[in-house]
Amino acid sequence: MAGSCGNDHLKVLVLKEPLPFSDEDVTFRLLSLDVCCTLASLAVGLSVFHIMQHALHCLRSWEQKHIIRILAVIPVYAWTTFFSYLFFGGAVYWELIRECYAAYATVSFFTLMCHYIAPNLHEQKNYFRSAEPKNWGWPLNWVQKLSGGEHKGWLRKPRCGVTWFNINYIGIFQYVVLRTIVTIISGVTQLFGRLCKEEHNPRYASTWTAIFDAVSILVAMYCMHQVYD
Fold first, then answer.
1. Which of 81, 146, 160, 172 is most enclosed, with most CB atoms within 10 A?
2. Closest residue by Cα to residue 42 from 95, 84, 66, 78
3. Per-residue buried b or exposed e for 93-105, using 16+ beta carbons within 10 Å of the residue's own CB
4. With bands split at pLDDT 50, 70 and 90, how would you rate the model's confidence at 73?
5. Cis bond before residue 119 (omega within 30° of 0)
6. In sequence order, which residues have a C-beta less than 8 Å from that of residue 69 and are 6 or more positions away?
């Protein structure tokens, strides 16, 4: 189905003219591809080396598997960026893959922090069950004053540490779920020409996916800060 973006008449500009200081067959796009491929290969090589070190010396598997997932951010970002240059017409799809994996890596970082406390979820909850929950940070601690204070109201500080942990756990994991849904919706709407990332218009899907994604990231980062602080 043909796209219907407001800027469909615009074409992707690719500089095919030779660079002034080079041979006739060296264009700006070719130079940028060479630089991008070189840097991507270097980044992937270094990250794969560290990944292999963890895989070959797997002494604490419940922690190292999350470290490997975090290290995989580098090759994912490097190669999706390179393929965005190479297949610039489908750059949106590569960007969606990159953004989706970023959510996965964020959750892996949170899970890694939890595994530093205890090797499994059951023991982690036992730890937080005996811990004293801390109050919500800014700006919720300000809004608390309007809803009953720190110990009353729907924004009160949880009385049990495991409740506090569960709230933050859900707040962080919702990001990877919603990001996956947003990625699928964005890919489908891009296929039918209804994503239109260049247009800030509620008629197009990009406006709504950006709003939902921003809210999801905000909630996840807030909960991450609560746990990490």
1. 172
2. 78
3. bbbbbbbbbbbbb
4. very high
5. no
6. 104, 105, 108
Count of CA atoms in the C-beta half-sphere (13 A) of 131 = 16
pLDDT higher than 70, residue 171: yes
CA angle 101, 67, 210 (to 5 degrees): 20
What span, in angstroms and rounded, lies between the C-alpha atoms of 179 and 218?
12
Residue scoring higher pLDDT (151 or 5): 151
Query: What's the sign of the alpha-carbon dihedral 162, 168, 173, 174?
Result: positive
Q: What confidence score (pLDDT) does residue 111 get?
A: 93
CA atoms of 93 and 83, how far apart (whole Å): 10
44 pLDDT more than 60? yes
Mean pLDDT of the chain: 85
Q: Please indicate, yes or no, whether the overall pTM of this predicted structure exceeds 0.85.
A: no
